[in-house]
Amino acid sequence: MKIIIPGGSGQVGTILARAFHADGHEVVILSRKAEKSDWRTVKWDAETLGDWAREFENADVIINLAGRNVNCRYTDENRREIMDSRVKSTKVVGEAIAKATNPPKVWLQASTATIYAHRFDQPNDEINGIIGGNEPTAPDTWNFSIDVAKSWERAADEADTPRTRKVLLRSAMTMSPDKDGIFDVLLGLVRKGLGGTSGDGKQYLSWIHEADFIRAIRWLIEQEELSGAVNISTPNSLPNAEFMRILREAWGISFGLPATKLMLEVGAIFMRTETELVLKSRRVVPTRLLESGFEFEFPDWESAAQNLCRRWREENE
């Protein structure tokens, strides 16, 4: 297959490109800058049609991951860049697909599990999940993230691509041992003795092991009856306190210094990020994946954490 990954130079894109390249597929990354890799990189501006759109002709799969990194302070300028980078890139991907004489069979469009409401009572799935934005206790920054997610999905839904199946990837945090990924950051806290409970520790953390993320993407490419929103997450989300305890045990450390909500808010200012990434409760379940017959290799955090810690050691020690 020919697989094109707009915005594929980040962690998740690299995970997918690496896997598909190893399978023998032709992988093309669309990026704002040329980068050396084992697969082709084609430059684009993520806003306007250009020569890059020729790649879509006779391609099999588009996996659009384009969007500015959200690990930043939500200033007015950053908010504009976060929103525009997602909506504009999605619109132009839709235009390129619509323009192709022989368009791709499937368009997998990045979204996020952050679209769901901050809640503790019930998990959110694609059928009965509550879309967020109206929680009375949610900060403005959390509502902004939900607005971005809804606008992102709307841009894909509105694209006129009748010959191309569209899937919206409401993805949880993808855990891999790659440098600077979310797992690397969390493990770094554990290794420094700082990997304790965040806030009251009751907020749920949804995640997926990279092996299952790759397998889920392959599955969605193959399952022609699946379209629309699909949650890409393990069935077993965990409260923050339990998640971090299991990670400490997997690494072999019994203690982690906890961080209060106030400590996290102060630390986020100095680290130029937002507390939403650790304090919002994301309790997501992948109902549509499971009902379609998908089986997880790492459904529970215990086995996933042990695997990831072992591989991190192999790559870094």
What do these coordinates show?
- This protein has ten helices and eleven strands.
- The model has no long low-confidence stretch (mean pLDDT 93).
- α2 (76-99) packs parallel to α3.
- 43% of the residues are buried.
- The radius of gyration is 19 Å and the shape is globular.
- The longest helix is centred in the first third of the chain and has 24 residues, at 76-99.
- With 317 residues, the protein is an alpha/beta fold.
- α1 (11-22) links the parallel β1 (2-6) and β2 (26-31).
- The chain has helices at 11-22, 76-99, 140-158, 182-191, 210-222, 240-251, 261-271, 276-279, 287-291, 301-316; strands spanning 2-6, 26-31, 40-43, 61-64, 106-110, 165-171, 173-175, 204-205, 207-209, 228-232, 238-239.
- It has a single domain (2-316), classed as Rossmann fold (3-Layer(aba) Sandwich).
- The protein has a seven-stranded parallel beta sheet with strand order 3-2-1-4-5-6-10, sandwiched between helices. The protein has a two-stranded parallel ribbon with strand order 7-9.
The 3D shape can be described as: globular
Taken together, the total number of domains comes to 1
Q: Which residues sit in consecutive blocks of at least 5 with pLDDT less than 50?
A: none
Return Rg in Å: 19 Å
CATH class: Alpha Beta
The main sheet comes to: 7 strands, parallel
What's the total helix number? 10
Tell me the strand percentage band: 5-15%
Which series of helices and strands comes N to C?
Answer: EHEEEHEHEEHEEHEEHHHHH
The CATH topology = Rossmann fold
Distance between the termini: 36 Å
Average pLDDT number: 93
